[in-house]
Amino acid sequence: MSVREIPMYIDGQPVQSQSQEWRDVVNPATQEVVARVPFCTADEVERAISSSKEAFKEWRKVPLGKRMRIMLKLQALIRDNTAELAALITEEHGKTLPDAEGEVGRGLEVVEHACSITSLQLGELAENAANEVDVYTMHQPLGVGAGITAFNFPIMLPCFMFPLAIATGNTFVLKPSEQDPSSTMRLVELAHEAGVPAGVLNVVHGGPDVANQIADHQDIKALSFIGSTHVGSLLYNRAAAAGKRMQAMMGAKNHCVVMPDANRSQAINNLLGSAFGAAGQRCMANSVVVLVGEAREWLSDIVDAARAMKVGPGTQLDADLGPLVSPAARDRVLRLIDAGEKEGAKLMVDGRNVQVEGYPNGNFVGPTLFADVTADMTIYREEIFGPVLCVVSVETLDDAIAFINANPNGNGTSIFTNSGWVARRFETDIEVGQIGINVPIPVPVAYFSFTGSRASKLGDLGPNGKQAIAFWTQTKTVTARWFEPENVSSGINSTISLG
C-alpha cells in the first residue's frame, strides 16, 4: 500500500511542503502508516495567510446569491461522497463506518445551513427613526478567519468553521489535526470543486508553532478552536493579546441523569452508546451516569449491556466501538483506569485486556465501567476521552442537579425521564449550556448554535446558528438623512438630538 503525502492547500492548489519535519499518520487498528503530514514552515504559513488576505479583496464583493450557489454545490458533493469521506475517517481515526457516516451527516447540516446565507446575513432597517432619518445595519465580513480543529471529528469540526465563515464573505486558513488529515483534505478539494475561488480557503499543517503563528498573526481577524482545555486556553489568551476575535470549544465532563420513571431499555442503550461510541473520544460523550433513587437498581442491567458491546476495527460493521486514535491515547486511558482502581472506585467492567482477533496491534480498550465514583477521584475530575463510564448514585433530582452544577465544565448534560415536570425543572436549574431530554448527546442541529458553557468554552459566541453569523461578521450601523436639493438649514444644531 502506498503512503499518501498530505499536501498543503494554497491558492486553490495542493502544494507540497518543503518542511524537514513530517509525522506519520497511522491506522489505529493496525499501526500501518497510511500517510505522512508535514509540519509547515513559518514561511509556508505566511504564504497561506497572505493568499487569503489577497483573496479577501475580491471575495468580500461576491454577491450573496453566488456564495449561496457554491454552498449548494458543496452540500451536494459532500452528500455524493459520503462513503469516501467516511472511509478516510475510519482509516485514520478508527471510529466505525456507521459513526463516520453520521459525522459526515452532522457536518453536512452546517453546509446546508450556510446555503441560507442570503437570509442569514440580512441587516435591519428603521425608516424615519428621527425626522427624515433612516437607521440600518450591515453585517460585513471581518477579513481572514482561521480554524484549528481536533482529531476526533475531522469532517464535522472543519464544517463547524469554514462554510459559514466563507459564506459570510471572509477568507479562511484551516489547520486540521495532524493525526487524521486525509478526510479534511478531501473535504477542501470538494469545496474547490464546488466553486470556492483560489485563496478563499487555504490549509496548513503543524503543531504548536503553527497554531501560535496563527493566533499571533495580525492579518487574521478571528480564530475558531476546538480541542483540549489546555491548548484552547493558551490560544485564547494569545489571540486576545493580538486583538483578534476568538472562540474556543474545549474539554468537558458530561453527565447523564437517569430517573426511575425513564424508559429503561431506551435509557440504557442511549447512555451506553453515548459513553462508548467512537471509543469515548467525543467532547460531548456522557462519561458520567447519575442514577437517581431507585434507578440505582438498574446498575446490573447497565453492566450486562456494556459487557455485551463489541469491540473491533472501524471497518467491521457490527462493531460498537473501534480503537483509540493512537498508542499514546490508549496508554493514557489505561493509566486513568489504573488510577480509578487505586482510588477506590468499583471496577464493574474492565476493558483493559480486550483482544480483537486479527488486530493484535490495535489501540483497543473495551467498554470500562466504574461504580461508586466520587467527585474527588481522578477518573471523575479529568476528561478521560476514552471508553470509560463513571457511575454515581444519588437520592433525589435535587442531589443530581447540585452534583452536576458543582463540576466546573458545562459542555453538555442529559436526563432520561418520562416526566415533563422533572425535565422542565432540570433544564431550568442546571448550569450547563447544552441539555438533552431523552437525548444522550445534545449537539443541536446546525441552525442552532453550539452553546457549551463555563470551563468548556471561552468566548461569547459559539459555532453554528445565529452566533456563528455574529462571530464571523462585524456590524456596521448607518444613520442617514438625505436633504432635498433646495433644502436650507435653519441654523447650527449643537445638541446631540437628531432633530
Automatic annotation (TrEMBL):
The keyword Transit peptide does not apply. SUPFAM superfamilies: ALDH-like. It is an enzyme of class 1 (oxidoreductase). Residues 16-478 form the Aldehyde dehydrogenase domain. Its EC number is 1.2.1.27. GO terms for molecular function: methylmalonate-semialdehyde dehydrogenase (acylating, NAD) activity. Keywords: NAD, Oxidoreductase. Belongs to the aldehyde dehydrogenase family. GO terms for biological process: L-valine catabolic process; thymine catabolic process. It comes from Vreelandella boliviensis LC1. It comes from the Bacteria. This is methylmalonate-semialdehyde dehydrogenase (CoA acylating). InterPro entries: Ald_DH/histidinol_DH, Ald_DH_C, Ald_DH_CS_CYS, Ald_DH_N, Aldehyde_DH_dom, MeMal-semiAld_DH.
